Amino acid sequence: MNIKKISAVLLCMLMLSACGTTGNTVTPDSAAETSSALTETVSKNDIPEIKENFSGNETAARTRGSAAVQLVDDAAASDGRAMFISGRQESWNGAEYPAELFRGNEIEVSGSFRSSNPSIRVSVQYTVMGNTCYNGVFTVETNNSTYSSGDGNFTIPPSAENILVYIESDNLEDIYADEFQVKIKGEYTYLAKPAELGFADTSDYPSLKDTYSEYFRIGAAISPALLEKPEYTELIKAQFNSVTMENNMKPEAIFDHQKTISDPDKYMECPALRFDRFKSELDFARDNGMTVRGHTLVWHSQTPNWIFYKDYKVGGELADRELMLKRMENYIKSVMEWTTENYPGLISAWDVVNEAAADEGGMRKSLWYETIGDDYISKAFEFARKYAPEDAKLFYNDYNSYMTGKQKDILEFLKPIAEAGNIDGMGMQTHINTDINPTMYMIALKKYHTELGVEINITELDVGTQKKGDWEKVQGDYYRDYMQRLVELRKDGVPITSVTLWGVTDALSWRAGEFPLLFNADLSKKPAFDGMIEGATVSRS
Ligand code: 9MR
Q1: Whose CA is nearest to atom 6 of ligand 1?
Q2: Ligand 1 proximal residues by C-beta, below 6 Å
Q3: What's the first-to-final CA gap in the chain, in angstroms?
Q4: pLDDT of residue 125
Q5: Which atom of ligand 1 is nearest to the CA of 296?
Q6: Which ligand 1 atom is nearest residue 123's CA?
Q7: From CA 424, how far away is CA 335, in angstroms rounded?
Q8: Which of 43, 156, 269, 505 is 20 to 30 A from 511 in CA distance terms?
């Protein structure tokens, strides 16, 4: 491997992105200043690195979507200069860095931000086998006066191409960025091209949905891009009879900011909504006889903050309880009505409230909580019951919900809702690792049923692991044991009605670096898949 050449390629790539026709609003300046600013973005050790303090007049960042990127004076920044991102019209608009040279490596990303958006997210985007995925690396809570720093790691699959690291926010206010860095964690491997993969022939795989048909549905989280390739759709149709939209049914995909602010008075009690982003996924489910888990109505994340402000101006006055109850009711009503009218009978379950329990105990202090109060969860279920068609079940959904402390809190706030008859199911997300004790997990699962009298869905199953030793076998055994236990509980009368995997291939998973799913990037099956099949057919010893 020619390290010098890599640096040259990186430098060239950075120069292209800084000086090319990307629409950056970068102040032109002397060539000398330009090249010294860019040299800083190349690692001293000849290993690719993006390192920017924005002190000069050039940046390797490109604009993303409608945003403009400028380097500006900013007294709050470490050296008085920062990158300023403005004109954002959608949450994904911001600044992006090409990151092709990081392919196949674990990266460490860090940055400092200030913004009147409550948080800034740094994410990666890449394409594997023609399918593009977007995954968060870290999120920083921000304020507009001082910089807040954050960092995170992510492993980019060897088969990835068109790799970008980008700065975005669920809300649309401007963003100042400082001290932004992407570097290699551990030893660097240079992959000039994405690992070439041909799709595996999946036609002879046993079918999960058929194997488990007498127990529960088997589902997967999907995205519209997956549905563009027949290799993916054939596998999904053969293996699954339920789907969840991984991102496109979330509030941020439905609330329409531009339309709402075009006439805030008209939309005061009911922000404008759009329903076009998940149509292809619903069509796919309907046309292939699958059911859909509606994910999700009331959540603190991937929900734009502007909906919580009286005049839809973030940073202004928060809407009062009465107004937010109206907005919540109208949102739930509109989504239920649109889906029932256009796709009758398709949505079998709604995650009415998602992740309301705080990791530190009690209820999460989200803007729903702040504006409405601690009965916002029961209100959401009340509205959902009022407008949901009879065949749609209403669920509460959360991660780490098998943990004793969290379970206690969840049971406490769901009990009155169950007593009122407004909840039908508990969704256990199940983003776990192979070291999670399955006995403890199953006790917790059963307890939700016995204490609330509801059915259970496993809604976002993935089992992370480290590539150490015989990791594939360990993971396969874990999946087998986990599924065997679910089947045992089902046979014992615990109404587990569906098990959904959070994605299809490791390479496109939100936990790509932990290889948590059943299929490799080329759709070849992993021992995890065999383990999952065996879970229904082999008894636990
Ligand atoms: O898998 C989703 C990923 O693509 C998004 O970037 C992320 C942003 O919040 O959301 C992921 O899905 C989450 C799900 O909606 C709720 N439970 C946790 C999931 C993983 O973060």
Answers
A1: 135
A2: 134-136, 246-247, 301-302, 399, 429, 460, 510
A3: 50
A4: 96
A5: 15
A6: 6
A7: 19
A8: 43
In sequence order, what E strands does 56-174 have?
A: 62-64, 68-73, 81-86, 94-98, 106-115, 119-128, 131-141, 148-155, 161-168
Tell me the backbone φ, ψ of residue 61, rounded to 5 degrees.
-70, 145
Choosing from 100, 460, 514, 534, the catalytic residue is 460
User: What integer pLDDT is reported at residue 87 of this predicted model?
Assistant: 96
Atom of ligand 1 nearest to the CA of 295: 15
355 in active site? yes
Q: For the chain, give the percent of residues with pLDDT over 90.
A: 82
Q: What are phi and psi of 367, to 5 degrees?
A: -70, -25
Q: Considering only CA atoms, which of 289, 367, 278, 357 is closest in space to residue 328?
A: 367
The answer to whether residue 329 is catalytic is: no
Q: Which residues pair with 12 in a beta bridge?
A: none
Which residues lie below 8 Å from residue 458, measured CB to CB, with a gap of 6+? Answer: 427, 428, 430, 486, 496, 498, 499, 500
Ligand 1 centroid–CA 8 distance in Å is 36
The pLDDT tens digits for 478-520 are 999 999 999 999 999 999 999 999 999 999 999 988 999 999 9
Residue nearest to atom 20 of ligand 1 (CA): 510
Question: What does the mean pLDDT of the chain come to?
Answer: 90
pLDDT bracket for residue 1 (50, 70, 90): very low
